[in-house]
Every structure is written in structure tokens, then in C-alpha cells.
Amino acid sequence: VFEIEKDVDDDLGIVFTKGTFDGIKRCKNKCIFCFVDQMPSKLRDSLYVKDDDYRLSFLYGNFITLTNISEKDLDRIKKLHISPLYISVHTINEAMRCRMLGNPKAGEVLKIIKELADAGIDMHTQIVLCPGINDGKELDKTLFGLAELWPKIKSVAVVPVGITKFQKNKNLRVFRFQEARAIIEDVSQHQAFFQNKIGTNFVYLADEFYLMAGWEIPPYEHYEGFPQIENGVGLTRLLWHNFDYAAKKLPQMIECPCRANLVTGRLAEPVLKPIVERINQIKNMTVNLIPLDNQFFGSTVTVAGLLTGSDIVTGLTRWRQKQTDVRPLVLLPKVMLEFERRVFLDGLTLEDVEKMLGIKIIIVEPTGEGIVKTILQMSCGKRVGV
Fold it and tell me: Residue 26 and residue 95: Cα distance in Å, rounded?
């Protein structure tokens, strides 16, 4: 037995091989929008694991649906005050939630959330928004229903449904340009109401809505501490904010010319464009931004983290055919890789892609500080990469 004196917030420095000792609680739902069910076969096994475990929600911020939670689990959460939890709500319409989750128990979510709130458990919630299903008036009802449980429900993230070319549900589709703009306008009105009523925006839209609508990203203060950053809410503004601060370290010029290609998904092109423009103000430094299409999952998947090794090989090969200026140094965001094994979603390794293209790849931490750190290392001729 070891006795250790430490402050509450001090980390013990102990890393467990798994988040739980007795396995994880698996998801028993058949959600109409489940991204795991939209993946092709024969990928690595870990990609098909669907957890729905309140312990992982508390430890890592994983979202849970509460459809498989037992009375024993609820008693333990309340007794140990396991808080905050992250809840996938989607709708408070009981019949609709049962249909969306493909689970007859799904309609009990509001009852369970109220029970947790009464026990003092803080919650962050999310809504995966599907066109023509839980949007419009249904979204309004859900937002106002959840707001009644503020301040125990701290925030609501509204995230657009993701669709791959393997989606079998023909009733699902991505949001269109005008629809995204309408959602932003509606949610902005709700935010103004909540600010006046409870002093917080309460509901936040994922960056994807603003980007697909060509809408200005809200200011830093809008996100009120970024409670849903892991859900893609405020990532763009936080990246810009941190880059602007870190960019003060960038030199005005470097001695030897340095050239590289920065690869990303289509969605991130307007996000990274001002950053690349700032980097290219450094004399003798040239970074070219290359947004690639996702051939593996389909053109409706536009985020950088879902680009595969084959997408990069295909995309850069086509790019080379159009360009006379071929730059052998390629920068990739870390989110594209399962990093311990340096492998992409399709099973290709970093080394595979380098060999197939005859290039050197540098992995970049996708933060403002990470980008500046990589540029500084490149400009000094140091070994770079995370």
C-alpha cells in the first residue's frame, strides 16, 4: 500500500492499458445515422467497436445514449457523483428517438437525464441533426426541453449527420447550403433568447455548419470556454486564436528556401487558407495548401481526419500531373493517423505512402502551436514531426 499526498488536480502519472477493467459496455442501438455502420468491411477491428459506456463518458468525454444503463449503474453514478457525463440526445420526442436509435428503450432519455440532474450530475449533450427528421420544429422543442434542465445540462452541441458512400438508408442525406444557413439563423435566435434568459448561449453549432454555409465563424467569446471542442464545436476559432498568438514567434525570413505541401480535407480549406497566407509572408518560405477529395468514403465526407492513405496517394498523384513545381515535402495533420502504429484508416502506413509517392511526410499537430512549431523547425533545418 502506498500513501501519496497530492493536490486534487495533480496527475498521478499512471497510465492504464484500458479505460475499464472489465471490458466496455457495447452499444445496443441501431442508429439510422451510425457512422460505424457506414464503413466498409475489412478495416482494422478497433474501428468497428461501438461503446456506450458511462465510465468512458466520464473519463474521455465519449457520448452515450443511456439506452443500456441499469438502475445499478444509475445508483453508482449518483453515489460516486460521476460527473460530468456526455449524452447523445438527438431528440426528446420519445417515438422519434426510438426510431432514430432503433431501440424501444430510447424514449426514456429525458426521464433518466432528469434523474441525473436531480442528483447533481452535470451533463453536456449533443444532437446529430438529420435533414427532415429531427430538425426544424423538432429541434426547437428539443433545445427548449433541455434548457429547462440548465444549469445541470451545461451545453448542447448540434452536429450535422455524416454520410458515406456506403450508407444504405436512402432517407438520409447531408444538409444543403441554404438549409445550413437557415439552421444558423434559427440557432442564433435561440442563442440570443438563452443569453437573455439564462446568461449563456447554451446551444452551439458544429463548425461544419458555418463552413458548409460559407458563414463567418463566431468570435472566440461565443464559445464560452469551448465546452464541446471535442465535438468539432469551435475548433476553427480556437485554431485561429492560438495560431495568431503563436505566430509571433515566426521569423520575417529564413536563409535557405523551404517549400512544402500542406494536405487537408475539402472542409478545412477556408480554415487553413489564412494560416498558410501568414506563413507565406516569411521570405524564402513557401507552403502550398492542397485540399483533397475523399475517394474512400465518398465526396460527402470532407473532414481531414477521414482522409485515407489511398486518398493521399491518389490526390497527390493527380496534383503532380497538373503542377510543374513538385515539392517533395508533405505536411499531414496528425488526425489522419492511428498514431502509435502510424497507420491510416485504410490500413496503409505512413511509410507505405512515402514509398508510393517518393516523398517525405511530416506529421503536424493540428493546433496553432503545433503548426508554428513545425514551421520553425523547418526554417531551422531541424528534424521535424510529432
Answer: 23
Residue bearing cell 424501444: 104
Q: What are the counts of helices (DSSP H) followed by strands (DSSP E) for the chain?
A: 12, 8
Instruction: Tell me the CB-side half-sphere exposure of residue 254, using CA atoms within 13 A.
Output: 21
What is the average pLDDT score of the chain? 92
The rounded Cα 354 to chain-centroid distance in angstroms is: 26
For residue 121, pLDDT beyond 60: yes
The residues spanned by each domain of the chain are 36-233, 254-380
Beta-sheet pairing, 329-333 with 283-292: unpaired
pTM for the whole structure: 0.90
What kind of architecture, by CATH, is found in domain 254-380?
A: 3-Layer(aba) Sandwich (3.40)
End-to-end CA distance of the chain: 37
Task: Take residue 129 and report the three cell numbers written for it.
Answer: 441533426
Tell me the C-alpha distance between 250 and 379, whole Å: 9
- The dihedral of CA 173, 178, 180, 185: what is its sign? negative
H or E segment and range at residue 354:
helix 350-357
Crossing angle of the two packed helices 350-357 and 309-322, in degrees rounded to 10? 20
The H or E element spanning position 361 is strand 360-364
- Write the pLDDT tens digit of every residue in 12-24: 665 555 555 557 8
**Rg, Å, the chain Cα set:** 22
Q: What is the pLDDT of residue 15?
A: 55
pLDDT level of residue 386 (50, 70, 90 thresholds): very low
C-alpha cell at 367: 493546433
What's the distance, CA 162 to chain centroid? 12
Q: What is the DSSP string of 54-113?
A: HHHHHHH---B-STT--HHHHHHHHHHT---EEEE-S-S-HHHHHHHHT-TTGGGHHHHH
List the CATH code of the domain at 36-233: 3.80.30.10
62-72 residue pLDDT tens: 999 999 999 99
Residues 25, 72: Cα–Cα separation, whole Å: 14
Q: Edge-to-edge strand order for the sheet containing 253-265? A: 283-292, 253-265, 329-333, 360-364
d(CA 364, CA 344): 15
For residue 90, which of 54, 125, 53 has the smallest C-alpha distance?
125
